[in-house]
Amino acid sequence: MIFNPIFGQENPFLDSLVNVLPNASEDTNKVILLSDIAWELKFEDPQKARSLLDSALSLAKALNYQKGEGNAYNYRGVVEDIHGNSEAAIEFFEKSLLIRQELGDKIGVAKLYNNIGNVNDNLGNQKASLQSYFEALKLYRELGDSVRVARASYNLGISYENVGNFQAAQEFILQYLSLAEITKDSTAMANAYNVLGNIRTEKDDFTAALDNYQTALFLHKSQNNQWEIGTALNNIGNTYDSQGEQKMDKKEFDGLFSFFENATKYHLEAIDIRKELEDLDGEGESYNNIGLVYKNIGSYYLKIGDPKQANEYWERALNFLDTALQIRQELGDQFGLIEVYNGFGDVYRRQGKYKTALDFTKKYLAIAEESNNEKFLQNGYKDLARLYNSLGDFKEAYKWRKEYDELRYERYNKDRLREFESREVFYSDRQKEWENERELLVRDSKLKEAAIFRNSLIVGAIGLLLLIGLIYNRYLIKSKSNQELESKNKIIEIERERSDALLLNILPEATANELKENGKAAAKKYESVTVLFTDFESFTKIAEKLSPEQLVAQLDECFRAFDEIISRHNIEKIKTIGDAYMCAGGLPEKNNTHAEDIIRAALEMRDFMTQFGEKQRKEGRPEFRTRFGIHSGPVVAGVVGSKKFAFDIWGDTVNVASRMESKSEPGKVNISKDTYNLIKQQFRFENRGKLIAKNKGEIEMFFVEHLTSK
Asked: Are residue 174 and residue 62 in the same domain, yes or no?
């Protein structure tokens, strides 16, 4: 093999490996050599690395050298992961995993689970990522490898933090912290405190978060970790700013200014470190953050009645944001540009310069759309609605408010589903531990039972004598109280029946019963349900032509009719969202007719709305033209809230059903291919082909035309 790599810089170790290669024998040492050279080239020349690893694999298979084959697959997975080919990376890691499992290489298997977990985490496959990390953690515990147990715990903590399961995140980070304390690893301890600060910030517990960040700062300073010191200073500055905002929202102005002063001080310290490290990205972040602090100080002065000072601080905020903008433009940092444009828009809005604010909002929204950054898309829709409202363009304001509500609901669905899946993995792992602990508890309890039984015989004899004396006395009291109790029980029974009826009006019967018995209702996954969305076309224009009382009365008439229709078809109402109506078939009791049930109900609703429209026209009122959208697939269902209960469902199936409605037409029932496949024998259809659905790509859709004869 002739191999002439071109290096961007000197690599003596690689040179020595390359020099050995031409004279290497076709044996296991050559497999290792090829893999080692590929490893050195994984960043610089991935194509050459792939070619070398393919050669290593071919030779390893010819020699039946399984260890070398497993290593080559692992290296190939790393190359693909580095260069963004995540699906291919997982495929190679899984091939290596099978080989290492066959060889009984527990450390190698654990490392591969960790690698697979990392790739799935990057892909957003949270459930698969967590399962892999748990497998790695289990093996490291079996091996007694405390260092790797700590790393796996840290990975799990970060993953749970990302999906919002802060209880699990905190548990694993505390495990990581305890191991770091045993080994006196100050840097690891600091990292743990930093993550704990992030978790507490997410929970709005800023006092605890500040304490964690301060501890992280102290530990990083003890190790002279300059970059990490800058990060800790930045986090502390943000926390002081958040505390100031929180107090301002509560109108607690006493001592408020000191929080913003502290925030500025820490951000300026962070800038000094970023400049010393020539960390331009971190410098831009800190300038942006100071701009946001000055924005809040301006709002503080406005709230206490000093508009002149408010404008002075807002102008300072714009200067810092402009410095951040120049840095981020130089770096081509798209996410950073979103943040800084958002900051500009917010400052100009507070100054009352709505058109300028609108320009900056559109700028960051365009970047967010291009990068599909859902957080800032949602934020942008809200800002547009607010700005158009301030400009008096209420039609545009309503349009963007609706976009905001739809995306917020869709993101809420995704977050709830991810959190549900993360809890599912967490508790399945805990269940295994609990089963082991239960065996020990059962054994111990049997020994205790024998001693308790012996002692209870003695105590029981004494108690029996006392009991005989008490029985007669209780008989006299009970005969009197029974009459009072019977009267009260009748009242209690009436009230119980009323509360049960009210609960059944809010929740499905099975869910209500579970809630009454256990005080809570567990979320459940349903593999196949059918979801229906309805919406009224041009509802804003209709609302403008009716008084609020007329509008509510007519919506109520329609939704009452919908309620009556779905009740006949074994369908569960989920909620109304403004002028939208949502229901689902196949839950809470599973069935195989949910798609047909929903279609029949939708067609009845359509017929009702046709008659309702004719009535409206005769009475000189605007007609409600209705779109129907249906999709089938898996969902998670459960009860949300602790005071005002609501039965809800989450998952991508809900989002796709909503898209089916928005791509429908007035008076039409639009269904997806998945629903069509379930009911294609019972109905007739108009195939609409594949249409683009927002954030979903192309989806094949059908209009349900009418029922076939049965």
From this structure: no
User: How far is Cα 160 from Cα 167, in angstroms, rounded to an integer?
Assistant: 8
Residue 478, phi-psi category: left (phi > 0), alpha (psi -120 to 50), beta (remainder): alpha
What local confidence, expressed as pLDDT, does residue 588 receive? 82
Both tokens of residue 48?
């050459």
Q: Looking at the structure, do residues 539 and 686 belong to the same domain, yes or no? A: yes
Report how far residue 595's alpha carbon sits from residue 598's, in angstroms, rounded to the nearest whole number: 5
Sequence-ordered alpha helix ranges (H) in 507-532: 509-518
Tokens read off for 579: 């002028």
**639's tokens:** 């009860």
| β pairing state of 626-640 and 669-672 | parallel
Domain extent for 254: 196-332
- Give the DSSP per-residue string, 284-296: HHHHHHHHHHHHH
Bridge partner list, 687? 702
Q: What is the largest CA-CA distance in the chain?
A: 107
- pTM of the complete model: 0.67
Place of tokens 């359509």: 606
Note whether 511 and 526 are within 8 A (CB): no
- Of 311, 332, 353, which residue sits at a domain end? 332
Q: How far apart are CA 549 and CA 687, in angstroms?
A: 41
Query: Which CATH number is 303's domain given?
Result: 1.25.40.10
DSSP helix, strand, coil percent of the chain (3-state; round to 5)? 75, 10, 15
Cβ neighbours for 415, distance < 8 A, ≥ 6 positions apart: 163, 164
Q: 297 and 200 in one domain?
A: yes
Q: Is residue 397 part of a domain?
A: no
What average pLDDT values come out for the chain (710 residues) when binned by 10 residues?
44 75 88 90 91 94 94 94 91 95 94 92 83 89 87 86 82 89 90 93 91 94 93 95 92 90 95 93 94 95 93 96 94 92 95 95 92 87 92 88 83 65 56 45 47 49 50 52 52 48 50 52 80 86 76 86 90 84 89 92 92 85 88 83 65 89 92 92 89 85 71
Burial of 197 (0-12, 13-18, 19+ CB in 10 A): buried
* Spatial separation of the C-alpha atoms in residues 364 and 337, rounded to whole Å: 7
* Number of structural domains the chain divides into: 4
State residue 649 phi and psi, 5-degree precision.
Answer: -130, 150
**Token reading at 452:** 């308790």
CB < 8 Å & 24+ apart, contacts of 68-72: 68/28, 68/31, 68/32, 68/35, 69/31, 69/99, 70/96, 70/99, 70/100, 70/103, 70/105, 70/108, 71/32, 71/35, 71/96, 72/31, 72/34, 72/35, 72/38
Q: Is 681 helix (H, G, I), strand (E, B) or coil?
A: coil
Residue type, 10: E
CA separation for the pair 236, 194 (Å, rounded):
10
Amino acid identity of residue 58, one-letter, is S
Distance from C-alpha of 260 to C-alpha of 244, rounded to nearest angstrom:
6
Burial of 394 (0-12, 13-18, 19+ CB in 10 A): middle
Angle between helices 86-103 and 66-82 (to 10 degrees): 160
Whether residue 579 sits in one domain with residue 529: yes
Q: What string of DSSP letters covers 348-416? A: HHHTT-HHHHHHHHHHHHHHHHHHT-HHHHHHHHHHHHHHHHHTT-HHHHHHHHHHHHHHHHHHHHHHH
